[in-house]
Design brief:
Length: 186
Amino acid sequence: MADWNWEELDTSIGGAEKIPEWVQRLLSQDAKIRENALQTLLCYVANQGSLYTAAAGVVDVLLDYLGSVGRLPAEAWHLMNYIFGAVSCDATVVVEGRTVSLDGYVKARITSLLPLVDEVVADVTIEELDGLTWVLMRLAERSFAVIEILEKHLSSAMGERRASLVQAVADARDAWEEGNQFLGDV
């Protein structure tokens, strides 16, 4: 994970100095605080489909939290989904002394969470699974591993979790097929 200087990153309204506070609110135990933080962060880092450089730091903080705690609230998964789907106007960030594409960086970082998802998916709540599923559908367009992970966990799931995973597997297969429909034509 990169060490971010938040004062050098931008948001839709300017500087990103307050973004770490909003990310901490996104990880709160209080659902109302999390929802407010989600709406605020969406406006700041992925506003109406436009990606701002602070999104890179947000993704790293969330992935670090996931790695250390083993779960993310549904709102954090939703934010990562919006970040993954947003685009910048050729924005760049400096990571370990190298200038890289903002879009490429956040997509690569979110994609890199697949092995971690495999470890945590069995323990997430239904609400967290719903948020995680949105991110996984984005990733399924690029990686068949999403389907394999979901099917693995489907085999031992019961009740509402099983129903959610059955739907997620079907959606992931659709996303995979849609994302790879032209590969045979190349």
